[in-house]
Amino acid sequence: MKNVLITAYAVNPYKGSEDGTGWNISRELAKNNRLSIVTRKNNRAEIERYLTENNDPLHKNMTFYYYDLPWWMMFWKKSIGERGYVLYFYLWQLFLPLFVKKEKIKFDLSHAVNFHSDSHPQFLWTLGKPVFWGPIGHHPPVPSNYLNPIYGRKNWFKDRLYNAVKFTMRNFDPFYYISKWTAKRIFVINSGVNKAVGANKSKIIVMPAVANTSKRQISPKSNTNKFNVLAVGRFVYMKGFDVTIAAFADFYHKLNKETQENVQLTLVGKGEELARMKRLIQEKNINNAVEIIHWVEKKKMAQIYANSSLFCFGSHEGAGMVIPEALSFGLPIVCFDNYGPGELCDDTCAIKIPYGNYNNSILQFSQALQSLYANKKKYNQFSIAATEYAKVNFHWATKAKTINKAYAAVG
Known about the structure:
The chain is an alpha/beta fold and about 400 residues long. It has 2 domains: about 1-210 and about 395-410, Rossmann fold (3-Layer(aba) Sandwich), CATH 3.40.50; about 225-395, Glycogen Phosphorylase B (Rossmann fold, 3-Layer(aba) Sandwich), CATH 3.40.50.2000. Helix content is about 45%, strand content about 15%. Strands 3-2-1-4-5-6-7 form a 7-stranded parallel sheet, sandwiched between helices. A 6-stranded parallel sheet has the order 10-9-8-11-12-13, sandwiched between helices. The longest helix is centred in the middle third of the chain and has 25 residues, at about 150-170. It is globular and about 70 Å long.
C-alpha cells in the first residue's frame, strides 16, 4: 500500500458536487492506499458524524487533518464576497505545505483533489514528493448569442471578466507553470480543459469528476401518465435555463389542449436568475405547465428523478454533475453538444444539439422533446440505454482505478 497525502478543500460525505467528489474519491482510494487527508475545519463535524454512524473497516485507512488560515483571514474572505473565496483558496493551498510539515505527515506521493478550478496552482511540489493534480475543470465562455440578448450586457461582461481573470491566472502566475511542470499526472474533467491549461499532453488523463453513489434499476417510463420534463441546477446564466424554458414552451404550444394536460416542466434549484425565469415562463404563457421547486436535500431528489420522464439541460458549463444522476434514473437527456453535458452522455441515451443560431437551437431542443414524447419505442430505447450508460461509466470505483493506475505508473 502507498501512503498518499490527499488535499481536498471540500470533503463532506452527506453532500454532492465538490464536497461529494472529495469524499468519494478519497474513500475509494482508501481501498488500496493509506490516506492522510487534509481538508478545512468546517468539514470536521460532518466527517466525524459519518465515521461514528458508519462502522467501516475501510475508514482505518483514512486519517483526517483539519486546517484553515487564521480567523482574521476567514472574516476578510467573507467580507469581500466571491473574490475573497478565490483568494482564500489560493492562500489555503500556498500555506498548506507548512501545515503538513508541522504535523509531520509521512507520505509517498501527494494528490491535490479539489476544488476543480483550472486557474489555481497547487503547491504540493514544495514537499519534494511526486504530485498528482485534479480532477480540474474549465468553463468556456458562454457563446455571445446565447448570453447577451437574453441576460444582458451585465452578465455578458461578468462572464468575459470571469474568463479574463482565469486566463490571467493561468498565464501570468509563475506558480501555475510550476504546478504543470511538477505534476506527474493531471486529471481533467473533459477533453477541452487542456486547451486552457496547456500542459504536456502526456500528463493529461480525462476523468469526469462526476459519478453515482449507487446502482439503480429503473424500468422505462413510457407508461407513466405525465410526461414530466426535468431540469436541475443553480439558476444562473451559465446553466441555460432560458433554453429549457423556451424549448418546452415551443413543444407545449404545438400540442392540442387535451394533450397539454399530460406534459409538465419541473425546474429544481435556486439562484439569482429566478425572477428572469419566472418572467420568461409568464411571457411564454406556460405558467400552468411549470413547477419550480426550490433547492431540496440530495436524498429528496431521488423521488423527483423517479417522477420525471426526461432531463432537458441547456447548460453551457464545462461539467454537468446532474447528468450522471439523471441517467441513473433512466432519464433520456436533451442537451447541447459541448464539452460539458455533451461529453457525459452519448447518442444512445441523449439527443445533443449543436451550437448555432439561438432560435434554431430552441427549435431543435423542442423537436427533440417532441420526438421522445411521440415515439414510445424510441423513448424506451433511450431510457434503457441511459441506465446502462450510467452503470458502465459513472462509478467512483472506476475513477479510483484510473487514479491508482496513474500512481503505479510513476512508481
